[in-house]
TrEMBL record:
Its EC number is 4.2.1.17. It comes from Agromyces binzhouensis. The keyword Lyase applies. Belongs to the enoyl-CoA hydratase/isomerase family. The lineage of its organism: Bacteria, Bacillati, Actinomycetota, Actinomycetes, Micrococcales. This is enoyl-CoA hydratase. InterPro entries: ClpP/crotonase-like_dom_sf (IPR029045), Enoyl-CoA_hyd/isom_CS (IPR018376), Enoyl-CoA_hydra/iso (IPR001753), Enoyl-CoA_hydra_C (IPR014748). It is an enzyme of class 4 (lyase).
Length: 270
């Protein structure tokens, strides 16, 4: 969806908010429905790189769009309109860099969708571990209506989320689906009545996750990301390696000891 006029060029397009163990990455271009320009994509990647430097203090990340109309309505079409094929490939690689930064982040990342998550916006959400959404949200990959295809991972991650048949239908038609249909398809994990409930629900999930062994959560995410889309024999080897790595942690020793001793564990994150 094209950028809307009136964007404040002096306001950072992405900001990080901290609340205890939770970090919120806010995409702040409401005038452009939070469209993903190259600057916005780089800012999102930089935000996750910065948070990774303090990963021991962050137990979960919420990604949300400002303004209440869109999570991200798509790529910034104006920034794409003059690109050469080589420049288009570089733009796609930048989108993949953002997705890779999210997937490599050791803590769970929840996309909180309130409004449109279209094109690059859906691809950004798909890179996150969970998608939560308000009832008024809409999802789609409309790139074919512009003579394009998904370029930030939609052809890879959408089939994993909803199955190949539905992914093809959504990509080939450019059709949008609402939050109820997205939840039914397995794209959205949970639906909420409004933005406040959405953010509170995401926070509650991260609080629940943070009570567990930090090392185990990070290992589980690593295995899930690495194993996705691989043959079963390869995927199970990723799991075996992750399971073995758990035995190298103090948290595993503490968790097992606490279970045997019938007490609450005191995890150290090591």
């Amino acid at each position: 969806m094209p950028e809307q006029p009136g964007t404040d060029e002096h306001r950072p397009p992405v900001r990080i908010e901290r609340d205890g163990v939770v970090a919120t990455v806010v995409i702040d271009r409401p005038e452009a429905l939070n469209a993903l320009s190259p600057d916005v994509l780089r800012a999102i990647a930089d935000a996750f790189d910065a948070l990774r430097n303090e990963a021991d203090a962050v137990r979960g990340v919420i990604v949300v769009g400002e303004g209440g109309r869109a999570f991200v309505a798509g790529a910034d079409i104006r920034s794409l309109s003059t690109l050469t094929p080589d420049e288009g490939a570089e733009a796609a690689r930048l989108g993949h860099r953002v997705a890779a930064a999210i997937e490599a982040f050791p803590a769970p990342v929840i996309a909180c969708v309130d409004g449109f998550a279209l094109g690059g916006g859906l691809e950004l959400a798909l890179a996150c571990d969970l998608i939560y959404a308000t009832e008024s949200s809409w999802f789609g990959q409309p790139e074919v209506r512009l003579g394009l295809i998904p370029g930030f991972g939609g052809t890879v991650r959408l089939p994993r989320a909803v199955g190949l048949s539905l992914a093809k239908e959504l990509i080939f038609t450019g059709r949008r689906i609402d939050a109820a249909a997205a939840e039914s398809a397995g794209l959205v994990a949970r639906r909420f009545a409004d933005r406040d409930a959405l953010l509170a629900g995401a926070r509650a999930t991260i609080d629940e996750v943070s009570a567990n062994a930090w090392t185990a959560v990070a290992l589980a995410k690593r295995v899930l990301v690495d194993a996705a889309g691989t043959p079963t024999a390869t995927a199970t080897e990723f799991e075996v390696a992750g399971f073995a790595d758990a035995f190298r942690t103090d948290d595993m020793r503490e968790g097992v000891a606490a279970f045997i001793e019938k007490r609450e564990p005191e995890f150290s994150g090591r």
